[in-house]
Amino acid sequence: MIELWQWPLIFGTGLVAGFVDSIAGGGGLITLPVLLGLGFDPRYALGTNKLQATFGSGSAAWHYARAKAVDLKDCPRGFVFSFVGAALGTLLVQQLDPSLLRRGIPILLLVIAVYTLFKPELGAQAIHPRMTPGRFAVMFGLLIGFYDGFLGPGTGTFWTMAFMLGLGFNMTKATGHTKVMNFASNLSSLVFFLLAGQIYFVAGLTMGAGQLIGARIGASMVVTKGTRFIRPVFIAMVLAVTLKLIYDYYLKSPGPPTSAT
Asked: Where do the H-state alpha helices sit in 67-197?
């Protein structure tokens, strides 16, 4: 039973997480520990987290689209393949032990953080794409969508890097498109939690309301301030996710796999 004083905490957590997540991803690092700290069963915490995250990614995607940072006409293929990939990942994680992948992801994220830190021109402006949009949508939609359903942490980072390196987007445009793909994979995973009945709806909707507002504020700041604003937040969140995963997968006693996205 959630006490009266905890409701503002739930809403405020969603607000902060929505703001951070709309800029650089990693909002689950804020929301999931709070839900677990309130005593939620881990399965219900994950389901409730997916519900509120869907509000945040949907809100951010909508505001990026309204600001012309995203052309939604370019997104259907990526959206569909991300949705399918996340569904496949969610189904497979119920059958397999993801420990091997979990131990390798922090290393990959650390490489991304270092690469971004020492490549200040990355994402400053658009460059020539290395892949066709169709091939990109199929390959990365299935791959990153699958990862989000299978494990999750760092999904936004992988999408942002993929858009910058694969399609040549600047960081602002890449961040906007990332939220559309995040929305697809969040929505896909949410379906499975709904079917399993593992969601606390009132808590999820309360946190989701905060996500809506925080994501709108964050997306507006990204559009207004551009790459110089995104880059330090992006690097900070990548390092935060990396350190959290290193602690979870190398230093702490092993437990059931969780997704922080």
From this structure: 76-93, 99-117, 133-150, 155-166, 171-196
